[in-house]
């Protein structure tokens, strides 16, 4: 994509600094250098971006649109440099200039337009789609505030706004000419035309402009540049009344402008429970309507064909149910604006849409009150109502065996609209994100739908981009891998399997260990700079990094730490492999119990880290403000990857794949993709423990679990819980009573006590296994070798061949 060498790259930076920042290489700030490099990349990207679009137009390639309320892309500078083949040259140039590359790159503010797994998956997918050379685009919202910034004050999480657009975002291009109008509210009028068709008109609607900002998505070394289009809500010119401050209506008008800008104002920070907030519904409709209008406009630009041909050239993947208003919105446009009858419109719609489910947690499933949709989207409500009527009638006539289940299947029931049902009925494909998750959908959560539409359901096990999560974040390991198996694995990640030939190669295992030590030192340095805590880099780095949720059971990890602490206090000379427990996690601002766990981790850390009896044997650190960039620092240094969700709850997990790819050994339950990791690496290269999903679901269905009896029977458990309840960790006795009560009097809904014993024993095995470093490195190499199957390239190839047919 470029023909720079270090000398000409140096000159290019110099030129940018002079022209754009009126400064010199010597005097420029890190930020000015960052902007200069970004600008050089943009200059290279623009023509390729144009050419990619031209090619799609000329070849009439089928395109996929990935609609998602979240794209957790993090920083782009390094991956963009890497993908256009400039990373080494840039690093070298910066070093020659006496600048530290990482200092330059960290000038970029993370684009945190996502909560966690679902948003990061969308980002990995875009990378793989472009790198594999497919025509695929993301469509999302340009939130002015991304996921909150987390600060910890006296052990408590405090949320600060993430105003990531404070400074110019160099990767985006505003496209005002492609703005579209979105309408909310008002009243709908239906007029019958002479030919019997309906004419729909609206009165008193509020209108908003959706203005696109395009971010380029670079393929790896292939000159492909796809688009992530992020929509921003702005005042529609029709509504810009140009009032002056003396007008009576002035403040009312300012209010109105404010309410419009709110639509793309912030990302909702809750991925644990569904809350029927009207603003969130507005965001969803805003995204969906803008995207669909855009897709239709693109189709018209590229083809001289009727819209009924769209499914041959276009497919729309909806990321969870958040964009499922795409079903009625497509119907609306096809019928009201394009004149198709119901049957034809339905055929087009259901051949365009495919839906991915990312959770079975019932509290997270979206259900909107009928009244809210009626008020905000009156025409869409009419259509949803009709879809529901026809759907229920169809079950009644074609599936008599499901007649008594209609109320469970209905899209509208008890004055609520079930978005998952709408998404399933309106799509041609429904997929889960790991084998077990898809099985649970088919046999339990969506069982009746599976009976109705067995062919729609399919599995697509998640993946991660190995370019970012191995090559970029762990250059040391990546280069050692290339030294032994050659560079082909970067294009064909399954080739990492060739590492299996080196699992007994002592020199290779030794270099792997050196890389891990190097990463551990870098992380230790960061921790020291951040919080003045010195880590023992000879200890096991045991990592749990993910959103804070009860089902992910960070609490069980803490209980284990307290248990180890007790053991060491009783017997300070106990023979134990030193451990560093590393946490990072954000809790939804309204999730009380999750915030209590964050506080508990801090209190336990302060007791353990400051107890002279413990010496270097145990350390607990919580790194604040978990985001993509922090994950990139921690993951290369991880040795044990904690994936300990209550079985059946974690749809897939993707952090498990990232750590495995960096040579960490998974300590996990039989949940989500852990099961497939185990199937690949074998029982000897993973630490599995705990209840199975079947057992958990059986307890939920039939009872039979009693947390209190474990409390009374297991002295280790009783001691930990009594300490929790007795003020040992905390400034006052009642500090953690809610956590204590939840276990004791709500019968431990996530089976922390039940799995505690097996978890302790598994950690004893880990302790022993780590002592045989040769054996440990062999396990690590085996994990890396199998991790290629969890590249999102593999996932995307499956979407392409089974669903998208690009
Ligand atoms: C409406 C509130 C809300 C918002 C987001 C509820 C639920 C969500 C997401 C579906 C939660 C999520 O991120 N799910 C995660 O998706 C990952 C990618 O498929 C999986 O790896 C994780 O297991 C799953 O928890």
UniProtKB/TrEMBL annotation:
EC number, as in UniProt: 2.4.1.1
**Pfam annotation, one family:** Phosphorylase
Organism domain of life: Bacteria
Q: Which InterPro entries is this protein grouped with? A: Glycg_phsphrylas (IPR011833), Glyco_trans_35 (IPR000811), Pyridoxal_P_attach_site (IPR035090)
Cofactor(s) named in the record: pyridoxal 5'-phosphate
One BP annotation, GO: glycogen catabolic process
Reaction(s) catalysed by this chain, per the record, are: [(1->4)-alpha-D-glucosyl](n) + phosphate = [(1->4)-alpha-D-glucosyl](n-1) + alpha-D-glucose 1-phosphate
Which UniProt keywords are given for this protein, alphabetically ordered? Carbohydrate metabolism, Glycosyltransferase, Pyridoxal phosphate, Transferase
List the record's Gene Ontology CC terms alphabetically: cytoplasm
A GO molecular-function annotation: glycogen phosphorylase activity
Q: Where, per the database record, does this protein carry N6-(pyridoxal phosphate)lysine? A: 658
Identify the NCBIfam families for this entry: P_ylase
Would you identify the family this protein belongs to, as annotated? Answer: Belongs to the glycogen phosphorylase family.
* Role summary: Allosteric enzyme that catalyzes the rate-limiting step in glycogen catabolism, the phosphorolytic cleavage of glycogen to produce glucose-1-phosphate, and plays a central role in maintaining cellular and organismal glucose homeostasis. Phosphorylase is an important allosteric enzyme in carbohydrate metabolism. Enzymes from different sources differ in their regulatory mechanisms and in their natural substrates. However, all known phosphorylases share catalytic and structural properties.
- Protein name according to UniProt: Alpha-1,4 glucan phosphorylase
Organism of origin: Salisediminibacterium halotolerans
């Amino acid at each position: 994509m470029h023909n720079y060498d270090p000398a000409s790259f140096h000159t290019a930076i110099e030129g940018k600094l002079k022209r754009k920042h009126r400064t010199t290489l010597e005097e420029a700030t890190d930020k000015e250098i960052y902007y200069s490099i970004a600008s050089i990349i943009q200059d290279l990207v623009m023509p390729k971006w144009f050419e990619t679009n031209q090619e799609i137009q000329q070849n009439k390639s089928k395109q996929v649109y990935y609609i998602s309320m979240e794209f957790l892309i993090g920083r782009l500078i390094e991956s963009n440099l890497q993908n256009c083949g400039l990373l080494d040259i840039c690093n070298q140039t910066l070093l020659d200039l006496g600048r530290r590359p990482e200092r330059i790159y960290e000038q970029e503010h993370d684009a945190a337009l996502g909560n966690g797994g679902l948003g990061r998956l969308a980002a990995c997918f875009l990378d793989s789609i472009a790198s594999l050379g497919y025509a695929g685009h993301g469509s999302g919202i340009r939130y002015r505030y991304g996921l909150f910034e987390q600060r910890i004050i006296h052990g408590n999480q405090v949320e600060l706004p993430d105003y990531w657009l404070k400074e110019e975002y160099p990767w985006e291009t505003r496209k005002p000419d492609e703005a579209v109008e979105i309408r909310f509210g008002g009243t709908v009028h239906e007029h019958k035309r002479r030919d019997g068709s309906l004419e729909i008109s609206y009165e008193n609607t509020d209108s908003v402009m959706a203005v696109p900002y395009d971010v380029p998505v670079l393929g790896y070394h292939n000159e492909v540049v796809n688009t992530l289009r992020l929509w921003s809500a702005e005042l529609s010119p029709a509504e810009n009344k140009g009032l002056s401050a003396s007008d009576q209506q002035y403040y009312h008008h300012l209010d109105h402008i404010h309410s419009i800008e709110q639509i793309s104002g912030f990302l909702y920070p809750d991925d644990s429970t569904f809350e029927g907030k009207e603003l969130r519904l507005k965001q969803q409709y805003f995204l969906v309507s803008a995207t669909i209008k855009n897709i239709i406009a693109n189709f018209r630009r590229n083809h001289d064909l009727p819209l009924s041909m769209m499914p041959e050239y276009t497919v729309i993947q909806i990321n969870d149910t958040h964009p499922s208003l795409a079903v009625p919105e497509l119907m609306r446009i096809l019928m009201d604006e394009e004149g198709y009858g119901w049957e034809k419109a339905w055929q087009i719609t259901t051949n365009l849409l495919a839906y991915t489910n990312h959770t079975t947690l019932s509290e997270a499933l979206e259900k909107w009150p009928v009244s809210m949709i009626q008020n905000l989207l009156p025409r869409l409500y009419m259509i949803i109502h009709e879809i529901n009527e026809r759907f229920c009638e169809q079950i009644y006539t074609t599936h008599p065996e499901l007649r008594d289940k209609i109320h469970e299947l209905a899209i509208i029931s008890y004055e609520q609209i079930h978005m998952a049902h709408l998404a399933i009925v309106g799509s041609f494909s429904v997929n889960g994100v790991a084998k077990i998750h898809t099985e649970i959908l088919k046999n339990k959560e969506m069982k009746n739908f599976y009976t109705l539409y067995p062919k729609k359901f399919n599995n697509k096990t998640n993946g991660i981009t190995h370019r970012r999560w191995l090559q970029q974040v762990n250059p040391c390991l990546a280069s050692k891998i290339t030294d032994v198996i050659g560079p082909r694995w970067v294009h064909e990640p399954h080739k990492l399997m060739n590492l299996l030939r080196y699992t007994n190669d002592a020199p290779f295992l030794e270099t792997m260990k050196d890389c891990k030590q190097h990463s551990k030192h870098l992380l230790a340095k960061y921790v020291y700079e951040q919080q003045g805590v010195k880590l023992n880099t000879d200890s096991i780095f045991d990592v749990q990094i993910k959103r804070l949720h009860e089902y992910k059971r960070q609490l069980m990890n803490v209980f284990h730490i307290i248990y180890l602490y007790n053991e060491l206090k009783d017997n300070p000379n106990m023979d134990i492999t030193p451990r560093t427990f590393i946490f990072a996690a954000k809790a939804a601002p309204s999730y009380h119990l999750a915030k209590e766990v964050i506080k508990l981790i801090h209190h336990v850390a302060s007791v353990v880290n400051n107890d002279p009896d413990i010496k270097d044997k145990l350390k607990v650190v919580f790194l604040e403000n978990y985001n993509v960039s922090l994950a990139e620092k921690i993951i290369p240094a991880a040795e044990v990857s904690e994936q300990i969700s209550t079985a059946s709850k974690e749809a897939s997990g993707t952090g498990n794949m990232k750590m495995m790819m960096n040579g960490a050994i998974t300590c996990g339950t039989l949940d989500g993709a852990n099961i497939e990791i185990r199937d690949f690496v074998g029982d000897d290269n993973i630490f599995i423990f705990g209840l199975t999903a079947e057992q958990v679901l059986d307890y939920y269905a039939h009872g039979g679990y009693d947390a209190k009896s474990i409390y009374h029977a297991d002295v280790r458990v009783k001691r930990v819980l009594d300490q929790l309840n007795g003020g040992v960790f905390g400034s006052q006795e009642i500090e953690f009573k809610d956590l204590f009560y939840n276990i004791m009097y709500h019968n431990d809904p996530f089976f922390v006590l039940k799995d505690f014993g097996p978890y302790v024993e598994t950690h004893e095995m880990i302790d022993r296994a780590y002592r045989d470093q040769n054996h440990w490195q062999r396990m690590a190499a085996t994990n890396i070798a199998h991790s290629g199957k969890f590249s999102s390239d593999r996932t995307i190839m499956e979407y392409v061949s089974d669903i998208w047919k690009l």
